[in-house]
Design goal:
This protein has 67 residues and is an all-alpha fold. 78% of the residues lie in helices and 0% in strands. The chain contains two helices and no strands.
Length: 67
């Protein structure tokens, strides 16, 4: 299953990489729209939101493909 770490170490690495890319994507999108805040709390929330969004999209695509 995509986006859910399991006992397979390769899955854990993939989920970690996708999470990092999602965090970068979230920061890039907010910068693109001119939305910015200050401090590490805003940056952390942006990274978490982007990672969750990308993992959710990846899970939806992988789930649709396997069904």
């Amino acid at each position: 299953m995509f986006g859910r770490p399991g006992s397979n170490p390769k899955e854990n690495i993939i989920v970690g990489i996708v999470g990092i890319v999602g965090g970068l994507l979230g920061g890039w999108l907010l910068d693109l729209f001119g939305i910015g805040g200050g401090g590490w709390v805003f940056s952390m929330l942006t990274a978490i939101g982007g990672a969750v969004l990308l993992l959710w999209i990846g899970g939806a695509v992988a789930g649709r493909r396997s069904a």
